[in-house]
Amino acid sequence: MKTQTIGDLSRWVGQTVELQGWVMARRSSKDLVFLVMRDGSGLCQCVADRSTLGDAMYQEAEDLTQESAFWCRGEVVADPRQIGGHEVRLSEIRTLHLSKDFPITPKEHGVDFLMDHRHLWLRSKRQWAIMRIRNTLIMAIHGFFQDRGFVQMDAPIFTDNACEGTSTLFATDFYGHPAYLSQSGQLYGEAMAMAMGKIYTFGPTFRAEKSKTRRHLSEFWMIEPEMAFCDLKQNMDLIEEFLRSVVGAVLEKNRLELELIERPIEPLQKVTQAFERIPYEEAVQIIRGERLVNGQSALDVLRDDLAQVRLSIEETRAEISDREAKLAQPGLKKGEIGHHQAQLQAARQRLDQAEEQVRNLPQWIESAANFQAGNDFGGSDETVLTRLFETPIMVFNWPHEIKAFYMKRDENDPRWAKGVDVLAPEGYGEIVGGGERETNLEWLVDKIHEHQLPMEAFEWYLDLRRYGSVPHSGFGLGLERLVAWVCKLPHVRETIPFPRMYGRIAP
Ligand code: 4AD
Ligand code: MG
């Protein structure tokens, strides 16, 4: 018999299976050992009973430590109370490798410690769930475009041009010539779209901003569709359908994972509703509290949030002292101690987050109220703007001065560039940036000068406007920002197996 995987156990209820994997957790009571096995495909509880296994094998189960590898055989019992919905009653067990002192224990660890142990941290339940959701998104993205006749094509990573501005380039040496790691595959995407009609790239991109915010990575994966004969409106229609489809795939395939990371699903289910499309000018009014959405001012709502958070801080502090007092009592059972400690840890985390909000909110409100029209939105402005919406929103028609050189100017009102940013709700902000591309050769040349970019590096790009130039559009989705929102993570560092960001290149 070949070994089965935990992910497939529902097909084996009532039958005997062989599994191989690692010990995620172990506890024992009199003559019973409970092992939570993980094998990459899922988690399940394996029960070792002394009377079935005999003393020698039972001892083997007893001796297994966290992250030891083992093989086992046993009967699958359906049990909805158990993680994954099954339990395996062991008839045989064999140790494959005994792990000693796994550094990541169930106790609390700081983020730096976990990041230093990212190669091991990936094994945790939470990281496992996030990576599986990431995988679903990747496959759903390919599926979406493939179903619609897009051709997947790859843009180069070494480039000689700055697509998204010169300030965030990683320079490298290409046989003695300066070259940069690509910030975006878009310019090549445009050339490929003129050859193939509709294409998308899916590859790593690099940004050198020395930014330590929760949404910046130095290396991230971007999906960039580009379509010939497509204007801004059609582009926005596609983005909306696209996000609805890929988030829908996660809701369909990853219920267990979403539950493991305690991600409420109602906000994600809202993607079936229409996404609000707001011109930049109106977005500015909302940010300043001058324009109401459904009768509400974004700033008033944030002020209410602040009052709420202050209240919750007092409650959480009271809960913490209460738990500390309980833990100080003599004669507590092991289970009770564990319970109080877990609750205490959760309460302390909530307190940290709430205290951070109390520090941030007044600044955010202040800077939103004083927002200057013409500026780009900062992270906090996006949070203010999206506060009153439950679906992602699309902000379009941006001041051309703050957008990339390739954006199409509105012929009727050249103040505006036909760009669109998609901002995710729940405080996440920008996940997609895109727009219609300039087709007017003269305007494009002017912009290249205005941005002080070297014309030679863009000659080939200008050819696209010389030979069969047509309206075309596209967008870029940052995969990690999408994963962060879908999983409701506080930081993008957990959305990619091995994050590269300012101050971190190992492991
Ligand atoms: O808005 P951006 O800079 O747009 C472009 O690069 C266009 N060329 C895309 C296009 O039209 N083909 O980046 C697009 C998206 C952002 O909305 C964000 O989701 C993500 O890429 N992104 C980052 N993600 C993580 N870390 C960073 N430093 C990111 N910079 C951008
Ligand atoms: Mg952008």
Explain this structure.
This protein has 507 residues and is an alpha+beta fold. It has a domain at 6-97: Nucleic acid-binding proteins (OB fold (Dihydrolipoamide Acetyltransferase, E2P)). It is 39% helix and 23% strand. It is built from 15 helices and 16 strands. The strands form 3 sheets. It has an 8-stranded mixed β-sheet with strand order 6-10-11-16-15-14-13-12. Strand 2 (32-38) and strand 3 form a beta hairpin. Helix 4 (125-147) packs across helix 15 (479-487) and helix 10 (298-328) packs antiparallel against helix 11 (334-369). The longest helix is centred in the last third of the chain and has 36 residues, at 334-369. It is globular. The protein starts with 15 loop residues before the first strand and ends in a 20-residue tail after the last helix. 4-amino-1,4-dioxobutan-2-aminium adenosine-5'-monophosphate is lined by residues 163-164, 184, 186, 207, 216-217, 220, 222, 224, 430-434, 474-476, 478, 480-481, 492.
Q: How would you summarize this macromolecular structure in one to three sentences?
A:
By secondary structure, this protein is an alpha+beta fold. The protein has 15 helices and 16 strands.
How are strands sequenced across the largest beta sheet? 6-10-11-16-15-14-13-12
Examine the coordinates and then state which fold CATH places here, giving the name of the CATH topology of the domain at 6-97. OB fold (Dihydrolipoamide Acetyltransferase, E2P)
Whole-number average pLDDT? 96
Q: Which structural class matches the secondary elements?
A: alpha+beta
